[in-house]
Amino acid sequence: xxxxxxxxxxxxxxxxxxxxxxxxxxxxxxxNRFAVGAAVVVLAFVLIAVFAPWLAPHDPYxxxxxxRLQPPAxxxxxxxxxxxxxxxxxxxxxxxxxxxxxxSIFLGASVIVFATGIGIVAGLxxxxxxxxxxxxxxxxxxxxxxxPYLLFAIGLMAMMGPGLLNIFLALAFKEWVIPCRLVRGExxxxxxxxxxxxxxAVGAPSWYIMGREILPNILSPVIVVSTIRLAHVIILEAxxxxxxxxxxxxxxxxxxxxxxxxxxxxxxxxISTFSGLAILVLVLAINVTSQGLRDAFDPRLQx
Amino acid sequence: MSFSAFAGRLxxxxxxxxxxxxxxxxxxxxxxxxxxxxMLGDQQASEAQRLTLRHDxxxxxxxxxRFGRFLKNAVTGDxxxxxxxxxxxxxxxxxxxxxxxxxTLVALIVALAVAIPLGVxxxxxxxxxxxxxxxxTSLFGVSLPGFWFGLLLILFFxxxxxxxxxxxxxxxxxxxxxxxxxxxIDTLLAGNPQAFRSTVAHLAMPALTLGLPMAxxxxxxxxxxxxxxxxxxxVTFAEAKGLTPMRVLFRHALKNALIPTVTVAALExxxxxxxxxxxxxxxxxxxxxxxxxxSISTRDFPLIQAAILLYAVTYVLLNxxxxxxxxxxxxxxxx
Lengths: 303, 335
Known about the structure:
The structure holds two protein chains of two kinds. Chain A is mainly alpha-helical.
């Protein structure tokens, strides 16, 4: 009887992890220390937003007129339990900034996710089906691109009135054209590639080709662009809230906090300064992350 | 470019402009609330008066006809009466537009003046500390919220150092005859150096706030295209001929490297127009953007509508001109 093969001390071919393009890109990204550091900062902001009620030292709506415009802890008149000082109603600034991150991050992310979804579908349809579908979608994209973004959002907000849902709608209404244009262009190029033609030749339905053959191959640039757009959308929301047509008081958003502090810029510079700093740090971190993602996942996009 | 290509491009404008008008029209038409109520405000009016007003405003017509009327009026510059200012919208816009044009143009000049030298330097000195500093600065530039940056400038140069005025367009420009509406030019024409200096001082912070984010974008574009051009054979050839590096750079490379910069600059004017609303609000700049922002709380929809249409049409036309310019400076591109 022969010994079972398994007992032979031969070097077995272990199933090596498949070196997919995704993994290669991920390795490139992880080697970029700046980008990884920035991604950690973004993640920290997300965690702060999620766990805001547990992290904020005080109730962000709790007014205390004795603490009106109290300076940050390290200045005269400040105290460490109110590190960043207080606003005009004596509310703790740090807690308001912590809660404000929820609006910026959740609203920004939901606009991007929604707009990217719509943009992908519209772009695939336009690029793959061509003809009148393409004509209609492309004209609509051209038209929407003609409006300066902020002005368009202001017009819609003026029409619909302030509020979270309305900011979402006002921003998403125009945002989808950016992924749409990108996806359309990529789809136009891919629909003539052999493997797509092969799928057509064996009779695969259009939805299958779009979803299974084309989509996975254009996701990298879409993800890269959507992270860049996230930074833009966060600034846009902050701008709308700064103008007083975004989130309404007492809800705190970083933009409205900067606006609140504007009237006290001479006596209480910390309100606007720290609230704006939060926007800058988050947007900067997102931009650095997206640059790292772009270098790793889609070197073609480098201008 | 051949005439037919030009005509083709021109024809392409028609559906876009029509669509832009339609969306702008629908924005107002779909707004909840009766325009007659907003127009009347607190004034009492009989049912007959209301009907007359409704008829005068064309609100009794079916939607397609109202759109036709809107288009016809818009072409002739008639945007109706402002609910708040109680004057023709066109008049209000005409008064405020020069301030916005002046601010936008100066911001554009600031952006180009910062971006082109920095972009060229960063490309020539690629991977040096200067290149890295420029890259980091531009990252900050695109990440800065304009309204916050403006406030910081006010805090530093206005409140702390008392160097620059924090709001308004100019002191001492009263009585200066309006020729162009641009105070920088009008004060010079009037031979009033004091008013000119005041205008420059008032413009400094708003123009910087508006121009810097654009400078960040343009710097990256200039750097990238300069790097691309410096790799070209004709540049190597020019160097091989023994031309000085300066001559190669300025006479040979720069001309081609600036093509993308100019194109992107034209496209970015749209974001300048959008950003001007924020900057005008922060600096109390008496331009169109500020009026639009103020119109939101007064529900002055005809004014908002006209401003949106004006900005969008300007943007479409600028794009068209940028396309044309692109083919003129870069004959390899055929439309």
